[in-house]
Design a protein that fits this description.
Blueprint (H helix, E strand, L loop, with lengths): L5 H26 L5 E4 L2 E3 L1 H17 L4 E4 L21 H4 L15 E9 L1 H5 L7 E8 L2 E9 L11 E6 L3 E3 L15 E4 L6 H10 L3 E4 L3 H9 L5 E4 L6 H13 L3 E3 L20 E4 L3 H7 L2 H4 L5
Parallel strand pairs: 3-4, 9-10, 9-11
Antiparallel strand pairs: 1-2, 4-5, 5-6, 6-7, 7-8, 11-13, 12-13
Helix pairs in contact: 1-2, 6-7
Bound molecules: adenosine monophosphate and magnesium ion (2 copies).
Amino acid sequence: MATAPVLTRLLSSCISCANSAGGIIRNILRGGNLGVVMKGFDDPQTEADRQAQRCITTSLSRKFPNITIIGEEDISSQVTDESDAVVVTEETNEVLQMTCPQKYEKIEERQIVVWVDPLDGTKEFTEGFVTHVTVLIGISIEGEAVAGIIHQPFCDDPAQGSGRTIWGMVGLGVYGHVPITLPRTTNAGFCVAITRSHFNELVQGAVDAVNPDHILREGGAGNKYLKVIEKHADAYLYPTKGTKKWDTCAGEAILKALGGTTTDCVGKPIQYLPSQSVHNLSGVLATLQGHQQLLDKIPQEIKARLPQ
Ligand code: AMP
Ligand code: MG
Ligand code: MG
């Protein structure tokens, strides 16, 4: 059998890495020593963030040496001996058996950038809101989010004891999620998902203007993308700086594979280029439908305070 295209093999490995990172995160929580250090105001890092990133980046760079990998955590100053990193060699066969969309068949490693948030929602993780935590691996080509994985290590559903993984590729579809054809059972009316721990006056102003029937205030960008992907919320709204490309790439790709849209809060696409800043300085707006109408409701005074 011919070898699968690079993008399919990469996605398959990324899913296995995200699952292993979830196991690392659960083990560290169980062990009880989180090893918290502060990277900045309201910006903690734990041993779980460090070890999960080491697992993902070491595993991927060994298999795909010519791909650019950009991870949230700066772990370069730590032990350079990789021998104690968990190295994932498994593939996810389900993905390898799928037909890669034609436009990605010939993509080469050097054209790909992988964005890794080894533990999204660290603040919530340290405060016990573990269902808000996700492992995010996003794949971009020429600045565009094209595939992604959101792994949730701790679920509300006890049947999913070892977490759950949602993944997708533009042109291929989304797998592992609750079918979005299910009727929404909670949060009736128009619902927005907003930050729990980085709330400010810009968020307040946009929420007031959008005037939702229901507000889901939870941690993590990956978690809020899941709310939109699974139709528990109509939008993820964050009209201020703070998120980075690794927070949005995976969710954007999965949402796009379902026909949804992500832009910043002035309406520009988010570009995933390693030559540009990692910061989403103009915020994030993610929806499955009705994107422009919602964008139009964000007041001009708020947009004027974001880089255009
Ligand atoms: P949140 O929605 O506040 O849970 O944030 C989603 C992601 O963006 C998390 O990875 C946060 O750490 C990051 N983030 C958002 N706002 C900020 C901020 N003001 N400072 C640091 N990180 C932020
Ligand atoms: Mg994050
Ligand atoms: Mg993180």
